[in-house]
Amino acid sequence: MEANDTKRLLEFIVENSPSAVIVVDKNGIIQKTNQRHHEESGFSEEELKGKHINTLIENRIISGSCSLRVIETKRPVLMEQIYKGSPHMLKALPLTDENGEVEYVISYILDISEKYNLISELEKTKFENKKYSIELLQARKELRKNNQIVFRSTRMRDLLERAEKIAVTDSTVLITGESGSGKGALAKYIHAYSSRSEESFLSINCGAIPENLVESELFGYEKGAFSGAQTSGKQGIFEYADKGTIFLDEIGDMPYPLQVKLLNVLQDKEFYKIGATVPTKVNVRIIAATNADLAQKIRENTFRSDLFYRLNVLSLHVPPLRQRPEDIPVLTEHFRKKINDRYNMNKSISPAVIKTLCEMHWPGNIRQLENFIERIMLFSRSDTVEVSDLDEANGSISLCDSEALADSLKQSTLKEAAQQREKELLIEGLKTFKTATALAKHLGVHQSTISRKLKKYGIW
């Protein structure tokens, strides 16, 4: 290769190097730079050629010269250096003559500010992850704290010990018990003590949603699946709850056709949205609850036996309040504090009232007890609720008056008596809460349930 070709080749290599390049002679005089160096330093080759390398130091382009160090040591130098305010990696190589004396030094300069940014981001991420882990741990503790169940009875202690053992598994759970006994609270308790506690807990009342909407609420639909569907489609409860827990309350009221779809989710961990041709994979734990006799529903062909067996992998039964009266005092105190906080009050409840509450009949269980305690605290004119306040709070809708209940039963069937009491409760409730939404929230049921019953009894 001729000298001119060699020179052209070297020029091409230097100019197209991904690194900034600067060449100095044995005296530290700049002989050549490339376009990348121009971009990095802001000085062109014409401006630097023939000047001493210290020019870059004087103009604060570099903080020190590795080229001068190579001239001094006659050895390659690799170092990090601040180059025009940014960190750079410099590699300087000596070109020596036959006597080993340095003739030229070629320096390659690579911007490593991105490296430092990545390190900084990594450190920041580590810190945030550590902070997140601490917050997550705290949140998990708070979740467990907020989902503690108030009790004193041996029955509930045994139930919760079993629930904690069940929680660490990933099996489906069926919770049975009377209305208002605390099945929903137990489901949250299981979720809080499970490996899914950091994920979502979604609850749906199978009896509160109109039958024609249950499927779309649970499983969602594709865009254009039916007339009136959202153009973007819709995610269902199962998709939202992926990796978390779904609580299906009143499972006995799930429409029969949908029970097959739920069975498929339990078996195959996938489902089809309405209008979909491809299944959606999902990883959820299902906790179901019912106050109905599912065995009777199976005999009546309104509930599938295969679904029952799939749901009933692990089962828990919440005892009614009448079977654990020793829980009433601690529940009363718990609700007293809660209601005081809600209404910014500071009322107490006398021991005589608590004794009376323990002797009363609670067909509505804990939900009824809480509502009744709220009522007596709101009706009480003094700072301490006394026995005399009970009758006034009960009024005409006392579900605890066993004599009144007995009189009703003498003149009607159980169903008729229950409906009459329910109607009285709704009429009295509207006097205080004014709207169906507020009354539903107070009674712990869905607003559509209250609206339906108000129409049923001709109250609205």
Short account of what is shown:
This protein has helices at residues 3-15, 35-41, 45-48, 54-58, 66-73, 113-146, 154-167, 183-192, 211-219, 237-240, 256-268, 294-299, 305-311, 328-343, 351-359, 365-379, 388-394, 402-411, 414-433, 436-443, 447-456; strands at residues 20-25, 30-33, 77-83, 86-96, 102-111, 173-176, 201-205, 245-249, 270-271, 280-281, 285-290, 314-317, 348-349, 384-385.
Count of DSSP-assigned helices: 21
Using the alpha-carbon principal axes, give the shape.
elongated
Helicity range of the residues?
A: 40-55%
Q: What structural class is derived from the secondary structure elements?
A: alpha/beta
The CATH homologous superfamily of the largest domain corresponds to P-loop containing nucleotide triphosphate hydrolases
Beta strand %: 15-25%
* N-C termini distance: 104 Å
Query: Regions with pLDDT < 50 over 5+ consecutive residues?
Result: 396-411
Give the spatial strand order of the biggest sheet: 2-1-5-4-3
| Largest sheet, strands/sense/barrel | 5 strands, antiparallel
Mean pLDDT, to the nearest integer, reads 82
- The number of domains is 4
**CATH architecture label of the largest domain:** 3-Layer(aba) Sandwich
| CATH topology term of the largest domain | Rossmann fold
* Overall radius of gyration: 39 Å
List how many beta strands DSSP finds.
14
* CATH class category of the largest domain: Alpha Beta
Relevant terms:
460 residues; alpha/beta; Beta-Lactamase; Rossmann fold; Helicase, Ruva Protein, domain 3; 4 domains; five-stranded antiparallel β-sheet; five-stranded parallel β-sheet; elongated
